[in-house]
Amino acid sequence: MTDVKGRTAFITGGANGIGLGIARSIARAGAKLALVDLDADALKRAKAELQDITAVETYQLDVRDRAAYAATADAVEAALGPVSLLFNNAGIAGGVSVANFSYELWDWHIGINLMGVINGVQTFLPRMIKHGLGGHIVNTASGAGLAATGSGVMYTTAKFGVVGMSESLNIELATNGIGVSVLCPGMVATNIVQRSADGTPKPEAALTKEQEQAIAKRTDMIGQLLLTMGVSVDKVGEIVLQAVQDNSLYIHTDRIIEAPFKSRTKAILDAMPG
């Protein structure tokens, strides 16, 4: 069990969506917050909301920038003390059809959704081990990291990587007093799809006007579906806090991935030799 009270938490994507829900939950439980995001206005709003509950520092950071990551880590620990709760949550959604793939788009998706998590681990894990305070790491993947669901090849590739890394870290860190969880959310009421389309600079894909219109229509449809049917970010924050306290490896927000995961597992087992 990891008690979060008095610990310093570093949360990427911490000013919006799931990251903000996690921040609210662990702030109420007594953790100090270092919130990291690209959205400067959202960081200001998050700090204004949470600063009366706990100590809060905010930082603009692109999680792909390793030098900036290291500098931010130094600033956080100087201001709030050693980080022993790490939430690698920043990510983007969406994608293009396989006919429109490019190296630039691969680099963008993998750079944020997988390398961003790796950069967080590599920046803070040596510090966490050196400090000897134990703690916990939560990596945000997706239900699409457990079974391919039509969420996009690039997105799914990155999220499978996050799941595998988290499972391996959980084994390796068992003797260091550092727990590991992988968050595999299903439908959560956030605007991540629209923010990914509008707010994060990305390489241009060679699309026809009809393809652009189709993507825009699909983006709007998925965004509305999430906001109307998804679990609230505050509920996700509570689920994540409980998982940290219980040292749970897998964190789910619903059962939407159950059937695809069962089908995948059966196919793998059936393919094994007798």
Summarize the structure.
The protein is an alpha/beta fold. The chain has ten helices and seven strands.
Q: Would you count the extended β strands for me?
A: 7
Structural class determined from secondary elements: alpha/beta
Mean pLDDT: 90
Strand order across the largest sheet: 3-2-1-4-5-6-7
Q: State the end-to-end CA separation.
A: 40 Å
SSE sequence, one letter per element: EHEHEHEHHEHEHHHEH
CA gyration radius, whole angstroms: 18 Å
The fraction of residues assigned to DSSP E strands is 5-15%
Envelope shape: globular
Number of helices: 10
The helix content is 40-55%
Major sheet characteristics: 7 strands, parallel
Q: Could you list the spans in which at least 5 consecutive residues all have pLDDT below 50?
A: none
Please tag this protein with its features.
alpha/beta, 10 helices, 7 strands
Describe what you observe in this structure.
The chain is α/β, with parallel strands linked by helices. The protein is 51% helix and 14% strand. It has a seven-stranded parallel β-sheet with strand order 3-2-1-4-5-6-7, with helices on both faces. Helix 3 runs parallel beside helix 5 (115-131).
